[in-house]
Amino acid sequence: MAAIHATLDVLEGSKFTDPPTIGEIAVACAIGYVAFRLPDLDWRTSRPKLAAWYDTFCEYPAMKATVPAAP
Predict the structure, then answer these.
(1) Is the dihedral of CA 21, 69, 53, 59 positive or negative?
(2) What whole-number distance in Å separates Cα of residue 71 and Cα of residue 53?
(3) Is 71 a member of any domain?
(4) The pTM of the whole model exceeds 0.85
(5) Confidence check: pLDDT of 69 > 90
(6) I need a labelling partner for 38 at 20 to 30 A (CA). Which of 2, 8, 30, 62 fits?
(7) Do residues 51 and 44 lie in contact, with contact meaning Cβ atoms separated by under 8 Å?
(8) Is residue 1 part of a domain?
């Protein structure tokens, strides 16, 4: 859990590009995995910039098309 929090903290200070790079696509997929597997982890509250970026990124059609079904 410490590694997840540390990584999210670093990403909070990151500058993302438009269009996204392959690295940013990987970041969005990793955040999606964390959100899906650890729904009780409140990562958004202390990382508002990252949360806003992720919300915007999730509007891409490819992200919408690959949202996993609820467990």
Answers:
(1) positive
(2) 25
(3) yes
(4) yes
(5) no
(6) 62
(7) yes
(8) no
Tokens 């690295």 correspond to what residue? 23
Q: Is residue 7 part of a domain?
A: no
Residue 2 covered by a domain: no
Query: Which tokens in the block code for residue 62?
Result: 């490819």
How many domains are there within the chain?
1
Q: Report how far residue 21's alpha carbon sits from residue 1's, in angstroms, rounded to the nearest whole number.
A: 26
Quick count: other Cβ atoms within 10 Å of Cβ 21? 11
Cα–Cα distance measured from residue 21 to residue 12, given in angstroms and rounded to the nearest whole number: 17
Domain of 49, in residue numbers: 19-71
Query: Could you tell me which residues come within 8 angstroms of residue 11 by beta carbon, excluding any fewer than 6 positions away?
Result: 27, 31, 47, 50
Count other C-beta atoms under 10 Å from residue 50's C-beta. 21
